[in-house]
Amino acid sequence: MDDNYNSCFYANACHVCKRFGDGVRLKRCGGCGMIAYCDQRHQKQHWPRHRRLCHAIQEVVRDNGLQVRQVSPQEWAQLKMNLMLLVAIRLPRRLDEYETQMFKFPRACLVCHERSNQLLEDCRLVVHVVAANFIELETARAWEILLHLMSSLALVRLVMIGPELPSEIVSTSVCEDCVRQRKELSFEIHSALYENYVRGSSFVRPDVVAGFNTGIHEREEATYPEETWASSVRALAEQGCPLILSCYTRVEAEKETARINAILGKETKHVYAGINPFAGLRPYRDFETEGIFYQNNYVIVYSNL
C-alpha cells in the first residue's frame, strides 16, 4: 500500500490526502484525538499503522494525566516532549518522523494550549490593553486581524483600561467572512487604573496583556508628580500571562525593563526585546528633541512577569 502520505504531518489536514480548509470536514481520531481524516475511507486506510500508537497515547494519558493549561512556552514544550517519550517507551517500535511531529506540533490553542476538540471549535481570546488612550480607541478595529490569522478563534474580547477613557461596552462590526463564520470582536472600555480594574467586579482574566508606549519609567523620572504604575505592574504580574510592551526607542525599552524590575524586586526575563517588526511606518517629529520617531518602534515580550 502506498504510504507516502506518512512523510509529514499537519494537525489541521487530513493525514492521508493532506486536504484542509474550507469545504473539508475533518474527523478527529476517536481514540487519541491527535490526527484527523477527511472521511472514513482514509481513516481505515491509515488505521493499521496508527493503531498501536493510538492505543499507546491513550494508555499514557490515562495513567499519567495531562495538565497543560496556563503554562509557559517552555513548560508546554517540555510537556509535549515528555508525552512523546512516555509513548515511545510503550510502543514496540521506533516512532516514525511524522509521528514525532504529532507530538511536537499538536492541534492546541495557541494561548492556553487546550486540546479539547470541542473547546477548540469555540476558542476565545481575552486581551487587556493597559494605559489605553484615544489612539488605541481609534485603531481598535485592527484587532480583527486575529480572527483572520487564528482560524480556531471565535471571539476576541478586547478590554481597554485607562483612566482617561469613558467606561462603556462598545459593539463593533466585523467583515463579511467573520460574520459568515460567526466570529466576533467585542470591546470593553474601563476608565480606571489597571490595579483598580483588576480588583473590581468587572474584571475578566486575560489571556494576554498589551501596552503601547505606556511610559512606565516616566513616573520614576518625575515627569509626573504621582506614582501610579507600581501597583499596576504588580497587578500585571499576578495575571500569569504573556505581556507585550511597545516603546518609541531602544533607550526607553531599557528604562521600561529596569523600572519593572525595580517595582517587582527581581530580574524579569523577557523572551524578546528589540525592533518591532510590526512598528508603525509613519514618521513623527518630537518637538522636544526635534528628532524623528515611529510608533511602537521597539517591543518587549514577556511570557509572564
Automatic annotation (TrEMBL):
Single GO MF descriptor: zinc ion binding
Keyword terms: Metal-binding, Zinc, Zinc-finger
Species: Ooceraea biroi (Clonal raider ant)
Coiled coil start-end: none
Pfam family, one: zf-MYND
UniProt name for this protein: Zinc finger MYND domain-containing protein
SUPFAM superfamilies: HIT/MYND zinc finger-like (SSF144232)
Domain MYND-type: 14-54
